[in-house]
Design brief:
GO terms for molecular function: copper ion binding; cytochrome bo3 ubiquinol oxidase activity; cytochrome-c oxidase activity; oxidoreductase activity, acting on diphenols and related substances as donors, oxygen as acceptor. The chain is an alpha+beta fold. It has helices at residues 2-22, 38-71, 89-116, 239-250, 258-264, 283-288, 299-307, 348-354, 360-367, 395-399; strands spanning 125-127, 130-131, 139-146, 149-154, 159-162, 164-168, 173-179, 184-187, 195-197, 203-207, 213-219, 231-237, 255-256, 274-276, 278-279, 319-321, 340-342. Helix 2 runs antiparallel to helix 3.
Length: 401
Amino acid sequence: MTQARHRSVWKRLGAPLAGLLLLPLAGCNMVVMAPAGDVAAQQRDLILISTGLMLLVIIPVMVLTVLFAWRYRAANKDAAYDPDWDHSTRLELVIWAIPLLIVIALGAFTWMGTHLLDPYRPLGRVAADRPIEANVEPLEVEVVALDWKWLFILPQYGIATVNDLAAPVDRPIRFKLTASTVMNAFYVPTLAGMIYAMPGMETTLHGVINHPGTYDGFSSHYSGAGFSKMRFKFHGVDQAGFDTWVNEARTSGQTLDRTTYLELAEPSEGVPVMRYAGVDPALFDAVVNLCAEPGRMCMSEMMAIDARGGLGLASLNATLPLVDRTGAPRGATVLGPAPRFVASICTEEEALAALRDRPKDEVRDRFTAILGLGLPRPLSALGNEPVISRADAPLDLLSSL
């Protein structure tokens, strides 16, 4: 009677209990194990191989744990009792040799996979049985992680989009990535692995999509209040579909220049898809070098100056307070000085252009080297030759300024 009642209770509660146990799996997405791109497929294979090699040790250990517990239980009087046993050459060989071989195999597969799947490494194939043809030009995509949205610039087509990206099937893609303010992580699981995007730096990712469809892309690194809505759609389409997508951007009538970019870079959440028919060709490099804002020196310029010895004490006067578009301080600290940034320094061409309308005598005095009493002329920073001042130049050369 009791067993029948137990069976009846299990019939009533078995299915609901099983459903509760499987409930945590409802949020799982198998896209990593069923990717649509060759790079992601190779990463999946590496995961499966590594997991299989580790299970070669884990499964026998789990089985033997149960077997030993059952065989040498206190109630089993037939089990051999040998308290003085302390060594077995065969057992030691099995315990050490098998894990050692597994570690060697796991290390070899991991080392090869790490180098073959290096995100900076150009692709050698679009699929397992299809190498890249010599005349195929990769699709260039410049990615900027903003707060909290994704900006995609396609320099080959002169367009840009926000939170929307498309690529032709079986065409290699070369991503160049950076961020505007804080570190983010670019991730399209079905396409390729995750790669970080950091302000002041440029990272690279290569990938390819092999199956048409619309896939999710997002940031996999927490970056603030709007992180959860920092998502975009990635469309794998044929060439005709890609041309249509490009034409939609070209008919938007909007242009992404420096001013528009600075407005777009302001923090915002849940931004809808936006398209731009034209893009400032130097915008991405300016974002990487942290000089998209007017009057700010680019890091590349600063490094070039430092490589030539720097500006010395004069550079102390080349900084300005760090403020936002409204004039409010940015990054203010309770302790220590307020943040400042290095102002842009004019180029030689800009300096000469500013002197064109000035009197010749003023120009001559401005370019005359400063000499101390009895001191030699200052030496060139690039060698031991004396610096030739513009005052020594013919007047007709000065008149051309």
